[in-house]
Hints:
Elements: E1 3-5, E2 18-20, E3 23-25, H1 31-43, E4 47-49, H2 57-60, H3 65-79, H4 106-113, H5 125-144, E5 149-152, H6 174-184, E6 189-193, H7 200-206, E7 212-219, E8 244-249, H8 255-272, E9 276-281, H9 298-310, E10 315-319, H10 328-342
Helix pairs in contact: 1-10, 3-4, 5-6, 8-9, 9-10
The protein binds zinc ion.
Zinc ion binds next to loops.
Amino acid sequence: MLPVLYTPLHRQHEPSFFFVAGNFTPAQERIDRAEFLRDAAVAAGCELVTAVEHGLAPVADVHTPDYICFLEDGHKRWSDIPGASAEIVPNVFAVHGLHHGYPERVVGQAGYHMQDLASPIGPGTYAAALASANLAVDAAVRVIAGAPAAYAICRPPGHHAYRERGGGVCYLNNAAIAAQTLRRHGRRVAVIDIDVHHGNGTQGIFYERDDVYFVSIHRDPLNYHPYFCGYAQERGSGAGLGYNLNLPLPADTGDDAYLVALEHACGRLHSFQPDVLVISLGLDAHENDPFKGLRVTTEGFRRIGERLGRLGFPCVMVQEGGYDCDHIGTNLVHFLDGLTSKLKP
Length: 345
Ligand code: ZN
């Protein structure tokens, strides 16, 4: 039975808004996303398991001390500002590559560490993000111990978070933390990101490394978030050149064209021969998702799962996006069913 990792601690993170087109709109990254995913997985016969606590070390192996300290105590310092909002929202931004110092004040640090206005930090955000990362670590540890696959219901998601920057409703990069945990245990690792948005944070973390192969299939960033990364010409740099593969797809791409791109990705993953495959499992490429990026169907998610399962690598699955609560549970179950039907027990 597939182990599914869930924690109620995610409920401490309750963003009050999502900033879009100049407006504060209701948050898409809602608490009940995780509950829908959990309930669907359990109803499908998966085994709900409790994660062992793995501490801060796996997180500190990916993220910088300054960033972790900011996430940990930033909200308290923010709250000390007279008239401050209930959540941290930056009003300045560091232009990376053009900055020359690290500010002391939390307002400056917020601009240094956050990429956008879409990722508010509330009083429970850090605790929830840590608990979310811990699930990803635990899923990795279970696969190291011999499980053919494990699925972590990570909320908040993580793939837009860089080593020292959060954004895109992500704070700690759960997939990268899982991958780095696997590396610490000597496993050869590849990450495939099937979220509709490019996994820019994960790419950034491993961009100069040749020991973690990263591939992302996503809506073309020319007209879509995250806009500045995810182009086909980004292939890695230094030792990492050739270990990064982006497969941007045009708007409204459906199942068949998606599967062609996935086939290409699988060929490269097969050549790399990882010991473990980390899957950044976004479900927002679905045709009904509010972000309207691609047009993958529910049956399409089963086919994607089957193809990845046929690679035969043990899999650590880490939840990313997916915002249509009417369908994310069904889409998850179709993906997991496809994947586990092809994996060796
Ligand atoms: Zn997404």
